[in-house]
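Exercise 7.
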Amino acid sequence: MKTAAVLTAALLLCGAAVMSDRLSAKAAGEMEDSRKIAITFDDGPHPYYTEQLLDGLKERGVKATFFVTGMHAEQYPELICRMSDEGHLIGNHTYSHIQLSSSNSETFKEELIQTNEVIEELTGQEVQYVRPPYGTWDKKFEKELNMFPVLWTVDPLDWCSDNVARIVQKVMSKADENDIILMHDEYKSTVTAALQIIDELMEQGYEFVTVDELLFD
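Solution. The predicted structure, written as tokens, is:
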């Protein structure tokens, strides 16, 4: 009877170990299969709010994509360097936030080149991605400048609202795998909302990546 009891206990321990291994393997598989999503920020950097945002991203181990204007990059070069040093992707948002039209194509192109030069001088890295203001784009620039346009799939219109809860709700109601979230790092409400969105989506199993990982992986 004693021997039988020992064998039963051993079998239970063995079963527990097997179950533990299976759970560990499942967890590892879930990590490998985590849903990817990208959060992007336009118009910065801002001397205060971008710094607060970078602090929050660093605390969470999250990488974002920043589409900066050349004008602001020149004004706050230390923030561009920090973005680069901390592994964020930096893209071009023109020099002055100009919108492409039929009459300013050459000026628009010059602003892209000028902004690339500013960013590359600060980071030592080639700029490949552009978010055209208001989404207006001409495919000829892709060949002429070797740049790829990046638009978005989720837009909470954070620039026209200081209601954090509403911004969060708009994103959470739409966000899905492989989405690109558009936000702006010029506002206190956006920084607060963005970090809350990140926390909630990470709890749901999302992994935040830079846009190049979504576009080309």
